[in-house]
Amino acid sequence: MPLPIEDYGLIGDCQTGALVGRDGSIDWLCVPRFDSGACFAALLGSEDHGRWLLAPAQGGACVRRRYRDDTLILESEFETREGAVTVVDYMPPRTRAPDLVRVVVGRRGRVAMRLQLVIRFDYGSIVPWVRRLDGGGIRAIAGPDALVLRSPVPLRGENLTTVAEFDVAAGERVPFVLTWHPSHDEPPPPIDAEEVLTCTERWWREWAAQCHADNRWRDAIVRSLITLKALTFAPTGGIVAAPTTSLPEQLGGVRNWDYRYCWLRDATFTLYALLISGYRDEARAWREWLLRAAAGRPSELQIMYGIAGERRLTELELTWLPGYQGAKPARIGNAAARQLQWDVYGEVIDTMYQCRRNGLDGDEAGWSLERALLEFLESSWEQPDEGIWEVRGPRREFTHSKMMAWVAVDRAVKSVEKFRLDGPVDRWRKLRATIHDEVCRKGFDPQLNAFVQSYDSKLLDASLLMMPLVGFLPASDGRRRVPRVYVLARRQFGDDAPARRCRTHLRASPGSPQRPRPALGGVRCRRAALAR
To answer: The pTM is what?
Structure first.
């Protein structure tokens, strides 16, 4: 069974990522891209679905784990009766095929180590053919995929897995390099693990040094920024919401979605955090990705795209996977890509506005996109939608959606006023006032003295805490008293109200999960609160 999610550490090369467990097992890896089929999928099942274990043979506690300062290089220290070792895990920034490197470093005494490599392509469903390589190592092939493992340690086959036992004494360093390549090509030449480690450390520290933060929170800020950077897809500028699929919103639940795509909303929050921290290259790359992905009719703007701008994200269930700690079904693809969510228009236009405010050079194509989105929004904003939480049921007039439609128009007005861009600003000012008036009339419940999830609803919604953050109303407004909202939330959700984001048991559409319980977390609202 997979570990609790908090016991995994992320490593990556800005094109894909792996999850390294506290027990020394890499239980998740998709290659060559975030959205490729996983070759290690034990996260959603068991070791039979693919993993790479590297740990003391007789067991031993992982007593310390840390990232090297200002890097994504993970170090896990194990202690046994015989001594101590550190396993260093990292993925070098890619210049060729993706590499995953593990180096076992002897710290004290002599420790017997065990390696178990279980390669299962296509999310744990395909057992590859494996053969030895001249000069040491193995090559595993199935369909379009091939993996090569190189190491000075002798490897052997055992029950359709690759295993090894070896000792590490104090001062010794034993490297392992796993490399993916297309199966029709010859394996790439080997790399020097130690040389690449030095280059990887330098690369991350040079990137982190660009951060503008210079206060007592700098370490925490830089660590968060490194994680966000790891979720960017360097070749296109896209930003994935997560490197994984099918981790449940609630343990044992059915809301298990694929997040290895670029949500416009999530990407804008991420981009804003990077932009205000000094990372203009990422902002520029994302803006170019957006212009390519959104090209076409404004009415067909999707809430998410593939990392290269793909639109068709067909949702499938992987029936052979038991799911994370039994949460079924495991899914790839995401049918929510075709949902209508008005808030995305606000997020996109707001982010383009923030790019201008932070000195990123304007772009004629960018303003043309914004004007096209506004023209469509003018004629359609009154329609109901699925809302920020992607409820799979009838469309409703969600208050947050209408508020973010106001944001879209407000930022367009400010772009004309502050940057002298061309647009029908008088008409937009009237539209801005119309939307604001409607939200305050229909989205506010006088009896609760609070804004509610949707018009004519009595339910609260964490997304509405963004009202003062986006400038819709001041935080001091009598209708937005946060202490009262907190008390009301406890009445609706119980003692764990601070962890709830909304009620999601709206009537479901055919074939969708029936009456799921309220989801935990509220990642998007937390991102918004940090970004504004």
So the answer is: 0.88
